[in-house]
Design a protein that fits this description.
Elements lengths: L17 E5 L5 E3 L11 H14 L4 E6 L10 H18 L5 E8 L6 E8 L6 H11 L5 E5 L6 H5 L3 H11 L1 H7 L6 E2 L8 H12 L9 E5 L2
Antiparallel strand pairs: 1-2, 1-8, 3-5, 3-6, 4-5, 4-7
Helix pairs in contact: 1-5, 1-7, 2-3, 5-6
């Protein structure tokens, strides 16, 4: 199991410990531990990461399938290795795959392992080349690949793309989602978040918050 920590919001406060208080309702909460292994934090972590992905404005969506990893107990190392082989082949062929964010799922009915990928930058791929290289890398021949159109609004893509899959998975069955993804909230190429993932999360919260201009009722205090 990956959810190995006790829920952080239910722990007793200690003297001198910072906490959050809602000045309108009087509600008091301990500070979140922000660990993926915490049942109270994993859903929030996944939601923040999905906003950061959206903020990066990826250009393509790619879904890769497998034929031999049905109901695999630990699929991420094999998916990672196959993705590495694919990227090495692209480099040899002079094909720019861009930078990726990968989230692994398994089908509810047959347990088929597949990878949802958001692509930032990179060129549009030739389907014949991609199919050949996918099979030689160990992926299945079936895939989906499409551009993310700015004029359609990113929200339309989120409805069926990486961010939705990630936040849905970690909300519905966090331990299962962590198992499929090696204990992490997705895997990202170096350069997907140029200024770092934490900064991207902060920037995306400011950019997409509907109440960005309204003062928050939550303040931080020290427990006495």
């Amino acid at each position: 199991r990956y959810l190995t920590r006790l829920p952080c919001l239910g722990r007793p406060l200690r003297v001198g410990e910072p906490y959050r208080e809602n000045i309108e309702t009087g509600e008091i909460r301990p500070m979140r531990c922000q660990r993926n292994g915490c049942p109270d934090c994993i859903g929030v972590n996944a939601w923040r990461r999905s906003l950061a992905v959206r903020f990066m404005k990826p250009t393509y969506e790619l879904t890769l399938t497998t034929t031999d990893l049905h109901r695999c107990g630990d699929p991420w190392p094999q998916v990672q290795d196959r993705a590495r082989v694919l990227r090495q082949a692209a480099k040899r062929c002079g094909v720019d795959l861009g930078v990726w964010g990968i989230y692994v799922e398994q089908g509810a009915k047959n347990g088929m392992t597949h990878a949802h990928i958001v692509v930032k930058d990179g060129q549009r791929l030739d389907f014949g080349w991609l199919r050949r290289r996918l099979e030689s890398a160990g992926f299945g021949a079936r895939f989906s690949y499409s551009a993310i159109k700015d004029d359609a609004g990113f929200a339309a893509y989120v409805g069926k793309g990486f961010a939705s899959y990630a936040s849905k998975g970690y909300r519905d069955d966090a331990d299962e989602a962590l198992r499929l993804n090696g204990g992490r909230v997705g895997h990202f190429s170096r350069g997907f978040f140029p200024s770092g993932v934490r900064r991207a999360e902060v920037q995306s919260l400011a950019a997409f918050s509907e109440a960005a201009d309204e003062p928050s009722p939550w303040i931080t205090r020290l427990w006495t």
